[in-house]
Design a protein that fits this description.
alpha+beta; 213 residues; Pili subunits
């Protein structure tokens, strides 16, 4: 009898308490797992967006630093008078954009049937900042641009230009600026401003050149 009593099983109350404790521990563990997965997903999204932003800035820096003093003709029309122009004439009705010509488009030995300068357009369309370019600098009638999406989740984009004295939102008319600033309102990071040097001429130097002439 003593041996039988020493090998008795758990009571119903003890089993219920054990099941309740196990359920609470499982619920807490599953909640922690869901939180960790959500944090990982959010971190990956933020990391991907940051990489996308850094790559876009690298492309912009390459384009702006190689900006050149060349006008273009759109669809066979007369050449534009300015070296930098807005989206009033950049292949889109969207007003948030900028276009210019850059040099340094690699074409070793001129083996490809195109120039080594490139007409570039940055424009915002459907919350995406796109980079557009044509095979030929002077676009012909009916030619479609090559579109490269750079940034998604862009609410607004604005450009400013520095002439050596101050920043201004007005497009330079006579020459290239010394620097260009782009302000991006992003869904992920908010307002971001980045400034790029441009091979332009300052307003002071330009005034002196005009006096010498």
């Amino acid at each position: 009898m003593n041996n039988l009593r020493s090998h008795q099983g758990f009571t119903l109350l003890e089993v219920l308490i054990a099941v309740a404790l196990f359920a609470m521990i499982s619920l807490a563990a599953s909640g922690m797992l869901v939180t960790m997965i959500d944090s990982h997903d959010r971190g990956k999204i933020s990391s991907d967006k940051l990489n996308e932003l850094q790559m876009a800035f690298l492309v912009m820096e390459r384009d702006f630093s190689q900006m050149t003093r060349r006008t273009v003709r759109l669809e066979g029309d007369e050449p534009l008078k300015q070296f930098i122009y807005s989206n009033e004439s950049t292949y889109s009705s969207n007003t948030q954009g900028l276009a210019f010509v850059r040099q340094g488009w690699k074409n070793p030995g001129l083996l490809l049937p195109r120039s080594d300068v490139q007409a570039v357009t940055y424009q915002l369309e459907d919350d995406t900042l796109n980079r557009l370019h044509y095979v030929f600098v002077d676009a012909v009638v009916g030619e479609e641009p090559k579109v490269r999406p750079l940034l998604t989740g862009v609410k607004q984009v604005d450009f400013e230009f520095h002439n050596g004295l101050k920043w201004s939102s007005e497009l330079p008319k006579d020459d290239l600026p010394l620097a260009i600033a782009i302000e991006l309102d992003l869904e992920e990071f908010g307002l971001i401003r980045r400034q790029f040097l441009v091979p332009g001429i300052s307003a002071i130097d330009q005034a002196q050149d005009n006096q010498n002439d």
